[in-house]
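Review form for a predicted model. The reviewer records the input and the model, then writes brief findings.
Reviewer: anonymous (R2)
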Amino acid sequence: MKSKKMSKYERAQLKVNSIRGFYNHATVFVIVNSLLYLLRDRFSIILLNQDVLGNHDFSHWIDWNVFGTTIIWGIVLTVHGIKVLGNFSIFKQDWEKRQIRKYMDQE
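Model under review:
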């Protein structure tokens, strides 16, 4: 019932802040995962040259961690996006017009 007590401006501001939070989340995801992929081989070479744990399969462990981070974080980012942006199809031409009408009708 809290949303009924909020003004249109406050609800719109909350929605915009949620969308901005999602875009920030997506930006950090791209930056961090790009760095992980770029530095993955460098970490493997540095660590393997020092014979870390005497195990040459250590590079596979690094690969699994890089890929696992991306997959799990990607799932979390997708859920965040669906929660913030709602269920929508970007393939339909009139998507933007329908969204504007939907938000106008809600108010």
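Findings: The CA atoms of residues 72 and 106 lie 34 Å apart.
Further findings: The chain has a mean pLDDT of 77.
Recommendation: see findings above.
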